[in-house]
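ok trying this again, last paste got cut off
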Amino acid sequence: MIFQKDLREESKWMRSRQLELKEQQKRYPLFKLMKTKNDGKVVYYKVYRAEGKRKRKIVKPKGTEFYDILKGICINTKLKMVDADLNILENIQHLYRDISPTELMTEVYRDNPRLDIHDISIAVSELEQIKYEPSEWARAQYKMSEYKPEEKIHTTSRGLKVRSKSEVSICEVLYANGIEFRYEEVIYLNGRRIVPDFTIRRKSDGKIFYWEHCGMMDDLIYRRRYYEKTDLYTCCDIVPWDNLILTYDKDGSIDLEYVEAIVRTILIA
């Protein structure tokens, strides 16, 4: 079975091929090669534009310039083929369904909206029996925030206590995709103590991401703390377009498809 990850890897390779071909075009730019007969003798012309006009120049057949023009034509044709194939592949990715554990969990919940997503995630996890070998980073001890532990009233399928059902859902998606994370780890930025909701390590390259889930933006005090927190992140070059993930509750719940998209496009690489 082909997975989304395979399609992404193929797209990545094809984009690198595009760049290679464009670099080759710098060495062998595209010109037209025209073949005519003059007094019964075959004559080749290099056709190009200069000073806004169409011009032509006689080219010696089978010479260096002759074959350089042919190479440019071949590179241009190959680039068109790669562009077309990449467009098809990206369209397939848009339509393709992986049936990953998270996809299954989302579909079950969509068909059975009265069930608890937490219970569904436990069933899917046990059914799939997904096992990941944790890294040293995942096995290491870390300092978790002790702020209002009594508010951690929700439990993930792996026994982690969190503050909301939305955070449970995020944890289950991370579990299902083998993403390593720390919940409410105490860190220091510019000498100031800060507690991200999730500190995440991308396995492919070890890059650290911070994920803030904002569930009470209608509360003024909560919103002020959120702005202070994001300002501190920004001062330390932790920004949404690079290593900071921000999600929000929608009508008291979280969009699982959006969470899945974040995990697939950012945290699985």
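PB: full thing came through this time. The longest strand covers residues 41-50.
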